[in-house]
Task: inverse folding
């Protein structure tokens, strides 16, 4: 386990000497900024509208945390869905094309050292992205008073969502040699995860307690919602731990499988 | 230092390596010969712990590859057929990384990395990015990676492939130096190749395999004593087998 940081550090350094990290960060900064501006504009328009209609009872109810920041975090979750496969696509696929997989598997490293090292590198990159996101609601504190608690738990939720995506992306990268294929597999898996609640909402799978509810539980969205409400529930944390853990296990098995063939 | 005991590898119905046994002592340089597809790379991959044998086992410096895999791997420096390089890293940072994952203690790391670069003639390009290096230099970086932790056993899969004659000479000299020296610092080397003069130049023993089976295991001097070159022996092996194939209706 003491070699996990070594593997992680190399991975991060490689990300930052290649254009991938910078392209992704720039793209992310642009999208995060764009969604923020759009969010603020929509919020403003809404408030103006309510004032024109003199709907004071509604004006009482709206606030920055629930009607601006939460929506904004939601959008960022979708942006991550597109970007994370770009971060993770090379994690294992590149080791295969470089031939360095042979170096790793003949070194006194365990497969867990490799898998956790790579996950840690991806997780650290997500940390940087979430720090960038934090700047935008940070601005709101200058001009308004959103709730600090909800803002922070929402960021924590985004971080956990990002880490979940990294674990899924790492698995996608471990099953193929091609970075393009890896990107597509990760993207499709994440998209399915996003769409699960929509399927559940169709109602064809039965009501409360049925398969529909189970699908909702599997999707990241529901758990992110909870955290944006300021609720850090053990069951939500457990959800992220279970999904991340399962995909890391799958990744480990997939990396190890070269030895079974 | 290396004991292969009845090593076998099957992929489904295909037998890649079939009961190969041999042992190599300290400071020995063994040439591992055979036609393409004979099972040389597979055998080396089993010795390095990359692939588990389907049958049999091996001991590296007394460590069984199944029972003490990490110790066995720590004792081996391995240069695969395709040097395992990260093209975006610089030479020094790459070799330093390998030293870290091979458990070289922090205090010795700087010295050992410097020594490996020096020995492989990489001191001048140590700050260059690997992706910009020529093939010859990349091969040397691959070799530096294999020797950086100063392992007692070196396993080199076609170490001089794709190099020009001068570079080939340098690499051979390096291998000879690694196996020479005195006492415990002598490396045991197995190298695979199909360049026969290379074997004559640096190996003292030859292990030949074909179709996954060991066919020859003898000191080089014995093989070339009767005036026939190694080339003739190799050709005889292959053609003998070809004739046998015809007889058995395989060809």
Result:
């Amino acid at each position: 386990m003491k070699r996990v940081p070594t593997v992680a550090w190399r991975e991060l350094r490689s990300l930052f000497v290649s254009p991938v990290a910078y392209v992704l960060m720039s793209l992310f900064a642009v999208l995060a900024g764009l969604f923020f501006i759009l969010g603020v504009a929509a919020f403003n328009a809404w408030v103006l509208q309510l004032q024109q209609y003199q709907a004071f009872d509604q004006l009482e109810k709206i606030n920055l945390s629930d009607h601006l920041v939460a929506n904004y975090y939601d959008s960022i979750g979708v942006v991550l869905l597109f970007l994370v496969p770009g971060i993770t696509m090379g994690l294992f696929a590149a080791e295969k094309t470089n031939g360095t997989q042979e170096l790793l598997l003949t070194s006194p490293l365990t497969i867990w050292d490799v898998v956790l090292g790579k996950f840690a590198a991806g997780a650290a990159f997500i940390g940087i992205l979430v720090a960038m996101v934090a700047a935008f609601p940070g601005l709101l504190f200058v001009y308004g008073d959103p709730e600090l608690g909800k803002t922070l738990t929402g960021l924590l939720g985004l971080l956990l969502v990002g880490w979940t995506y990294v674990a899924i992306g790492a698995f996608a990268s471990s099953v193929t040699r091609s970075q393009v294929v890896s990107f597509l597999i990760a993207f499709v898996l994440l998209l399915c995860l996003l769409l699960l609640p929509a399927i559940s909402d169709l109602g064809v799978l039965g009501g409360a307690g049925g398969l529909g509810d189970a699908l909702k539980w599997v999707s990241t969205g529901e758990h992110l919602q909870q955290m944006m409400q300021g609720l850090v529930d053990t069951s939500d944390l457990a959800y992220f731990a279970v999904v991340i853990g399962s995909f890391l296990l799958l990744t480990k098995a997939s990396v190890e499988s070269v030895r079974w063939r | 230092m290396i004991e292969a005991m009845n090593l076998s590898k099957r992929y489904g119905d295909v037998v890649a390596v079939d009961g190969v046994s041999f042992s190599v002592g300290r400071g020995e340089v063994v040439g591992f010969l055979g036609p393409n597809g004979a099972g040389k790379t597979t055998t080396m991959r089993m010795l390095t712990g990359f692939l588990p044998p389907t049958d049999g086992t091996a001991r590296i410096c007394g460590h069984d590859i199944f029972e003490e895999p990490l110790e066995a791997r720590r004792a081996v420096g391995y240069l695969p057929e395709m040097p395992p390089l990260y093209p975006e890293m610089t030479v020094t940072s790459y070799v330093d990384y390998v030293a870290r994952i091979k458990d070289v203690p922090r205090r010795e790391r700087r010295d050992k990395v410097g020594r490996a670069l020096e020995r492989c003639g990489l001191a001048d390009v140590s700050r260059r990015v690997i992706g910009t290096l020529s093939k010859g230099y990349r091969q040397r970086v691959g070799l530096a990676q294999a020797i950086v932790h100063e392992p007692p056993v070196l396993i080199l899969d076609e170490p001089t492939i794709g190099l020009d004659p001068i570079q080939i000479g340098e690499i051979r000299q390096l291998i000879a130096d690694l196996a020479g020296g005195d006492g415990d610092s002598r490396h045991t080397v197995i190298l695979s190749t199909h360049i026969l003069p290379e074997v004559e130049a640096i190996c003292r023993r030859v292990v030949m395999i074909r179709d996954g089976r060991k066919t020859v295991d003898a000191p080089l001097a014995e093989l070339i004593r009767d005036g026939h070159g190694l080339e003739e022996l190799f050709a005889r092996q292959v053609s003998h087998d070809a004739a046998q194939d015809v007889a058995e209706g395989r060809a």
Strands of chain B lie at 2-11, 14-24, 29-33, 55-60, 63-64, 76-79, 153-157, 188-192, 205-210, 213-219. Chain B has a mean pLDDT of 87. The first strand of chain B starts at residue 2 and ends at 11. The interface with chain A takes residues 11, 45, 48-52, 70-71, 73-74, 76, 78, 80, 82-89, 93, 97-98, 100-103, 145 of chain B (CB under 8 Å).
